[in-house]
Amino acid sequence: MRKELNTALARDFPNLYRAGPYVGPDVGDGWQLIVRRLSEKLESLIAALPKNKRNQYCAIQIKEKYGGLRFYMSIATEQMYDAIRAAEDESYRTCERCGEPGVLRGQHWLFTACDVHSRGEAPTSST
Hints:
Elements lengths: L2 H10 L10 E4 L5 H16 L11 E7 L2 E6 L4 H14 L11 E3 L5 E3 L14
Parallel strand pairs: 1-2
Antiparallel strand pairs: 2-3, 4-5
Helix pairs in contact: 2-3
């Protein structure tokens, strides 16, 4: 994901992306809205926790694996895991390059892409 999109996530969701072990997101710009909606949900769930527990919950890595989004946290509640699973499921229906509807493609190397980007190269990250 482009650097300015990554910077906006850290600015807009400070509890989730506070300084520390977070790496990424190492995904294409097409998944930016999925990551942003998930971040908004996770930020609100973290804010609802007791103040003395909030600093334990943070994103540590966002990446693509086997053609789908992977979102890892230091620790998560069941509600957080449910939100993460829903976002990961959505990524398999969304082109990682442009965000349009897509499908899982490939044989040895899996990627999710629309028809236009199905013949192109893998999405690249600018982070």
